[in-house]
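Budget justification aside, the reviewers requested a transparent look at the raw inputs and outputs of the sequence design task funded under Objective 1. We therefore reproduce one unedited record. The lines immediately below are the structure tokens for a 122-residue chain.
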């Protein structure tokens, strides 16, 4: 049973990023100018418009890698760094994102989890 708790933790950390990106993409479809408004919102924070597709890509690929357990060690470290950077750049709740980064760093240190693509190689 304990071997599945680490997999559950990995999946719950992945859902943070995947739910955010799913909600964002759904808002694009519900509003014809949704993507442009998203770019404008990032621009109001001082970020160039190139950050809009980069944020979407990183959250989608990183979240999927964590969900599937593919290259978990690298994905967890990358997403931990991303979580801190994005929290600072977008003025998000810093302590919440530091907690997420902490969980991702723990996953980076213990990447072997049940039900992952990494385990299929062995």
């Amino acid at each position: 049973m304990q071997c599945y708790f680490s997999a559950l933790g990995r999946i719950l950390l992945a859902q943070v990023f995947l739910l955010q990106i799913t909600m964002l993409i759904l808002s694009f479809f519900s509003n014809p100018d949704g993507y442009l408004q998203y770019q404008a919102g990032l621009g109001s924070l001082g970020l160039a418009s190139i950050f809009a597709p980069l944020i979407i890509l990183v959250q989608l690929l990183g979240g999927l890698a964590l969900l599937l357990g593919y290259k978990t060690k690298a994905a967890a470290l990358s997403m931990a760094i991303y979580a801190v950077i994005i929290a600072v750049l977008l003025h998000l709740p810093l302590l919440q994102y530091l907690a997420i980064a902490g969980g991702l760093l723990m996953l980076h240190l213990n990447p072997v989890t049940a039900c992952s693509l990494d385990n299929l190689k062995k």
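The first helix runs from residue 2 to 30. Helices lie at 2-30, 34-44, 51-68, 72-89, 94-109, 117-120. Computational costs for records of this kind are itemized in the attached budget.
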